[in-house]
Amino acid sequence: MDIGLFSNGERQNQIAKITYDGDLAEVILADELGIQEAWISEHGTFVTFHAPDQLPSAELFICKAAGLTKQIRMGPGIRPLPYFHPLQVATDAAVCDHLTNGRYMAGFGVGLGSKTPQRGPLPGDTRAMAREAIDMILTAWTAQEPFDWKGQFWQGEKLQIIPKPLTKPHMDVGMACSRSEGTLELTAQKGFIPLLSWLPPPKQVKEMIEIYQRASAEAGRPAPRNRVRVSRMVYVTDSVAQAKRELGSVDLGAAKVTGRLNQYIPEGGTRDDLTMEYMIDRGAFLCGDPDTVYKQIEDFYHEVGGFGVLLLLAGKDWGTDEQREHSMRLFMSEVAPRLAALSPDDR
Prior knowledge:
By secondary structure, the protein is an alpha/beta fold. It has twelve helices and 13 strands. Strand 8 (173-177), helix 5 (181-190) and strand 9 form a beta-alpha-beta unit. The longest helix is centred in the N-terminal third of the chain and has 18 residues, at 16-33.
């Protein structure tokens, strides 16, 4: 198992710079500690319930972070395709590929927001738009000559982008996969990397990976489980009790308010029951001393059938800066080395 970062920014700062500085510090620390990749959320512009501090352009953040890091690969997690012209997405990604010297990964998705007052109504179904956008982007990256496009949502003649990607035929692409079987199938058909959120419980994660593998087989593409990225909330400290003390006052924020944690509500309960302590006791958040966290991750890994990269949830003001740094350092020194032996495709 390899280790990555999912910087899912939600710090509730009124000044964006404070959030960006915090996110950047985490990515720089991750690079120092040998964490291999970081996916940077891009959702602040599109989801109206988020705080005003969130990142509307992951590519700008990634280009700055690339100059302050050495080896970590980075990508937007994700670029919500229906809200941009595909050629702009293709161009931005290609430029980032050059500016990061090949450390950029593209990240595609539909996006969470169903209402976008900042940009007005969309001309069609978001999933249909995303599918067409992906085809147009891949064509723009790989076409040797200017091409014509006569799609349902975008049209043009003698189209091309400059520059083409540095990575040939193009950079790796991650695809946000949530509840939609169709998105998992598309990810498999295109040979993309499935990016699974920190929100689904193990049973749902297992089902999603199985859909991805089945669709890959049907498409005639190999789908090793080590391609799958799964994000989890992981926090390492001296003990489970200490984790509860350090995180006890945390507000679970938008994930709770919007119902994306509803699957964890106890029978007969309400969203008010979804406290940090409850999520730790439920095993939804993997918290405690290094031995406990290792066992929790190992159990989760086997329960879902294995995967390749664990993405540590970041970008949250859960605990202090010092506590989060201590957690990441302790994880990488005392937990990650033991997880390295978990190889899903050797089963």
